[in-house]
Write a structure and sequence with these properties.
Blueprint (H helix, E strand, L loop, with lengths): L6 E13 L2 E7 L11 E9 L9 E9 L8 E7 L7 H6 L5 E9 L12 E7 L4 H8 L1 H6 L2 E8 L8 H9 L1 H4 L4 E8 L12 H7 L1 H6 L8 E7 L1 H12 L14 E5 L2
Parallel strand pairs: 7-8, 7-10, 8-9, 10-11
Antiparallel strand pairs: 1-2, 1-6, 2-5, 3-4, 3-6
Length: about 260
Amino acid sequence: MIAAEKYTNETITWSRAWTPNLFSFRLTRSPSFRFTAGQFARLGVRREDSNALDGSGWRIVWRAYSIVSATYHDHLEFCSVLVPEGEFTSELERLTTGDTVYVEKNSYGFLTTERFAPGRDLWMLATGTGLAPFVSILWERDHWRTYENLVVVHSVREGAELAYRDTIASFSSAPEFVSLGAKLRYLPIVTREPYSETLHERIPTLLRKGTLETAADLNLDVARSRLMLCGNPSMIKETRELLAGQGFATPKRLAPGTLAVENYW
C-alpha cells in the first residue's frame, strides 16, 4: 500500500491501439513530477476488492511503466501490452479519456545515459514495449549533440507491433533534431511473419552473425559504442553475455560503464 501523499491523481487524455493487445496512452502530468529520459514511473489503477483492509471495497494495483514522452512534455505517455486476466492491464484496458490513473511522485530506473563513459555511438536495443524508454531518449536534444550516431533496434513478433515507427522516422527529418548533428539509424525486426524492409532474426542471433552491425553500417567498438538493452529477459541475458565477451560492461559504483540494461517482467 502506497500512502496517498506519495502519488497524484492524473487523467487519461489520449489513447491509441496499435493492435488488439498493444496500446499507448497519455496522462496529465503534475508540474512537480520529474524524471530522466530512460526512467520509469509507477502507475496505479483502482480494482474492486471486497477484502480491502480499509473497508472501501477497492484497492490500488501498482505497476512500473517506462516513460515514452520527453522530460519537457506537459503529459506522460506510456505503452502497454494487455495481459489476459492481468490484475493491472485488465483494469487499465477498461479506462477511457477522462478516467483516473494514479502516478507515484518519484521516478525510478538506471537506464539512462548519465551512467556511461563518454562515447560516440548510442545503440538502443529493444523488444516489444521495451522501446518506450528509447523514444523518450530520442526526444532529448542533448543526446543528438553528444553522439554521432543513434541506433534504434526494435524487435517484435508481427509487423503491426512496430509501435512508434512513424515517430522515430520523423526525428530523421525534423530540422530541430537533424541540425544537432547525430545520424539516426532505425532497424526494425519482425520475427514471426514475412515483413518488408525489416530484419527477421532475434537480436542475439543478429549480433552473433554480425548482421546487425552490417545493417547499421556501424561497428560495435568498446571505445566508442554505448549500448542500452530493454525488453524480454531472455534477449537481455543472451545479448548481455555476447557483449560481455566483447568487453562491454555495466556501470559500477565508482566507474561509468559501456552497457546499461532494463528487464521487462
